[in-house]
Structures are given as structure tokens and as C-alpha cells.
Amino acid sequence: MYSYYDLLVDIGFLSRMGADVSYIGNTVLGRPIPLVHIGDYSPNQILIQGSIHAREHLTSQLVIEQIYYVLRRYGTNFGGGMYFVPMVNIDGVMLAEFGLDEVPLSRHEFLLDVNLGNSDFSLWKANINAVDLNTNFPARWGTGVQNVFVPSPSDYVGPYPASEPETQALMNITRRVFPQLTISYHTKGEEIYWEFYQREPNFSRDRNIGEILSNLTTYTLIDGTLGSAGGYKDWCIQDFFIPSYTIETVDPSYPYPIDYIAFQEVWEQNKDVPMTALNQAKAVFG
Ligand SMILES: [Zn+2]
């Protein structure tokens, strides 16, 4: 399993290979959330993030491998830049992977209550406050069809929009670097979501890029919002009018917790997504 410890080792390597490493803020438990940038600082920037959901930690390994791959294949001068937040929900990932051993004692009772007494947290999606970060963004917050309004292993929208430090950190970095396109990596389903109440011409623009990503990955492009709200992609589309995608990796037949034997296939499907996405941003925005 790919953990925060692995991430810290990798960002050390990446920094020595020419990546710029910084931090976008801290998690609830005070863990710094790494940000990796490669390329130049021209207006052509994209942002890719993984593991906003705890049990989807395979996506952190994917994002890290994508950074190595771009650096080895293209170096740091490929026209434009890429920001990566490989692990947004670090506390949740560590809880899903290691259970309460990675959580301060003062929070054990709360977490066990929310998890209905089960000390196995491998299916957990939320952050350490039991808020589902991908429902916590101020984009039609609280209107999602699967939303719940009490702390929960998944789908709890939080007490108010952007209540969580991880949500705020991702919002702040997005406002600071103004990416022209974003990709959020999730599991599972082999699907790509692109829609959140866009109007033309952005509707066609965003769907077209979605088709290109669908052809590249072989994943199904899903039209419609399907009752989604409060997600990072939703917020990016609503507030910045940029193309923004949720990519659900991993064959849906894999059960949770997802065996990392699934990784090789995910890698082959997604290794060229960052450069393809950047090229699309350049084509659209010049
Ligand atoms: Zn997810």
C-alpha cells in the first residue's frame, strides 16, 4: 500500500530530479500536504490530485509515478507546467491503511463510534473529522443525492462548506496557481466525469477534452452530473469555468480494499494523461 511515508520518500527523490516541492497546508492532524510542480511557470498550468478519498490511496502511487514518468521522458522544459497534489486526504489514507495506530488516542472513541465499533478502517473514505472532502467544496454544497448530514465514513458534507483544512488547502492552491485544467483521481469504475452545469461554449469544450481522455484511457465518458455536488471538480467548473475531470480508475470488478495488483493496468491506462491534459489546455487557452 502506498502511504504518507512512501510519499515523503518520493518527494525527496523528485526534488533532486528537478521538481519543486512545497506544501499547500496541513491536515486536521497537522501533517503537511505536499505539492509538486514540474515544468515552467507560464500561464499553461494543470493540476492533478489524488487520494481525496482515503481508501483510494492507489491513486497517490499513480500520481507520483506520473511525475517520475514526465520528468524522465520530457525533463522539466516541455512548455507549460504541472502541479500535483498526490495525497490530499493524508490522515484518512493513514487511517485506512494502518487503522487507529496512526491516530491520536483522543480521537479513537469518535472514530470507532462513526465506524459502528469496527476497528477495521480499510473502507474509510472521509478525513479524520469523518467529513467526505469531495462533498465539502462550495459548489451546490449539501444538494448531492448521496449526501449525509452526520459524521460518517463517507458522504458527510461537513458542518458548512469548506469546513475542512484539506478542502481549504486545495481551494487556496487552486486560486493561487489558476490551473487551466484539473484532474481528480479516484477509484473505482473506469469512468470519467466532466459535467457540472456548464453552458456553451464550455460545455462542448469540456466534453471534447473528456472524449480525448476517454479514448486515451479506454474509460467510459459519463454525461450528466448524476446528482454530484460539492466535489473539487464541481467547484473548479463552477468558479473558474475551466475543464475539470474526475477520473475513476480501476476495473469495477475489484473489491475494496483494492489490491495493488490492479496498479499495472491503471498505470498503462493513465501514464500519458498529464501530458495529454496539458496539451489540451494549451490548445484551448493558447
Ligand atoms: Zn473517490
**What's the pLDDT, averaged over the residues?**
98
Radius of gyration, in Å, reads 18 Å
Helix and strand string, N-terminal first? HEEEHEHHHEEHEHEHH
Separation, N- and C-terminal Cα atoms = 39 Å
Overall 3D form: globular
Quote the CATH topology.
Answer: Aminopeptidase
Please name the fourth-level CATH homologous superfamily.
Zn peptidases
Strand content: 15-25%
Numbering strands along the chain, what is their spatial order in the largest sheet? 1-2-4-3-5-8-6-7
Number of helical segments with 4 or more residues: 9
Task: Give the biggest beta sheet.
Answer: 8 strands, mixed
List bound small molecules: zinc ion
Count of domain modules: 1
Content-based structural category = alpha/beta
Number of strands: 8
Stretches with pLDDT under 50, minimum 5 residues: none
CATH class: Alpha Beta
The appropriate CATH architecture is: 3-Layer(aba) Sandwich
What percentage of residues falls in helices of 4 or more residues? 25-40%
